[in-house]
Amino acid sequence: MSDNSNPYNNRSNPKNPLEDPSINDNKQPRNFDHAPISYVRHLPQIEESEQLTLLCKMIEFISEGIFIINNEGVIEMVNSYAAKLFAAPKEALIGRKWSDFLNDYYRDEYHELFESLKANEEANLSHGPKEIMLNCADGSSLAADLSLSCLPYLQTKANPLFIGVLHNLTSHKAEYNKLRRLARTDHLTGLANRHAFENSLNESWMECVTNNQPISMLIIDIDYFKQFNDQHGHINGDKCLKKVAAAINECIPSRDCLTARYGGEEFAMILPRCNANIAEVVAKRVQKQISALSFVDQGLMPAVKVTVSQGIACEQRGEYNKPEALLCSADNALYKAKSSGRDRINVSK
Questions:
Q1: Which residues are catalytic?
Q2: Residue 83 has pLDDT above 90, yes or no
Q3: Which residue in 42, 81, 150, 272 has a CA-CA distance of 20 to 30 Å to 14?
């Protein structure tokens, strides 16, 4: 067909079926893909009760927690997955306020949100997704992402309805915490790694200096560890490192302290709110614990023992202007302990 034979491409014919619905040559189906909205035929009107019934059936096939509430926050519809997240039967949830399941920290926020909607009925709610904590019916807690939106096409003359979408974050948070823990942990010993150590040192330094509290640093080095490795093998060397790490970690005076693998056969302990005297007491405990270690379970002779040298530095009265200086001083103290014969403690003066 030539351009002239098509009446819609003929420039002499000003009419276009998308502009004049009266035109149709019955030879080609109309394409309404780009037609103005007013020309698209509306779906047949469905009674409100039928719409609600269809919605109730539809949300059952969605693999997220879905619940429908009115403007008073009362649950009017809930799917099986949401009932599972709330830890209650569906029939027990209908008629209850959904905010009853919100952790206190979030309850006031959503109460204010719905009160503002009542004051402005023309406002359309679109809130979230936001991480919240649910207090489930069985007494457990559940971390979830929540989105709340208005259902305008289901609004009655009296009250609007709102749809809530819950996404369970339990597995995501567990995976995140696992990855975060792995990123901060030395794979061999299970202690904090160098990255976690540096972060903790900076945080503890700021807290102690700001509050005029002392902070001590203890650096621990296994004496003659290379000889241990050469004589007993690297597998036994790794097992030795694990035992030493566990012994050191048992000596921390409080949970605010941190033990880390500083590098190779070196370990470090951050002691916030501990002066030099307390740090020295901890160091003596470390020395005693490590000297008592046995390697018989590794197939080694009872006479096989390891010792450690330790260096201590303490910031209490402005001796150091930054955490790196404290660390450097403890390292120098360690060097003096090793150069003085090993298996001893040196406190930086």
A1: 265
A2: yes
A3: 42
